[in-house]
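Batch manifest, entry 17 of 40.
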Amino acid sequence: MNTDLSLLSLFTDASALVKIVMLILLGLSIVSWTLIFQRGYALFQAQKLFDAFQKRFKTTTDLNRLYDYLARRINNDGVEEVVRAGFREFVRLYKQEIGQEAVMVATERAMRVALAREEESLEQHLPFLATVGSISVYIGLFGTVWGIMTAFRALGSMQQATLAMVAPGISEALVATALGLFAAIPAVFAYNRFSAHTQKMIRGYDTLAEEFSGALNRRLHSQSWQETSETQPKEALVD
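Output type: structure tokens
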């Protein structure tokens, strides 16, 4: 039995099934790390956009200016899309001169739908990280148990067993558990952190949507809303 305990040697000397387990765990680790960096960057950008838009909203007293800003934006992402959806529905129904309560109900419903879509976008790939964190250890443990069984079967055919003979086989088996932990620990950590960050952002989106709904409601009841269709292209809020 080979006594070289390098990682490459432990892999090459392992049984076929343990090799498959190691390759699966290595693949899961690579994919999860890729998603960790991708999700981390996406959440960073979303938080940056939210902070900037929240500051703009807090400092804007004229809703027409906010309307103009969103209309000029080619792509509205994150909380901007939530507010834009509410603005678009509000303007569309306001022009039809229907009841104020119906206008606000439809506006809030449009924002809730947009908020649900943004929540789904923010939580993208998080279930995969949770799955990797849950199953990787068990996959590694399966490889370890199988490897140990193989090692003991090999020892059973020998007349004299020594520690030098047992150690390599046990080491080969334990590598599977180590790989399982290597894949699971970052995935669990990232999932918990990203989930907490996502929920915090969703609460922020929801709060800002409520504030925006209140601003629209006050403007509607004050009867001071200025029609913007004459100065802005209709498709600015429709496309």
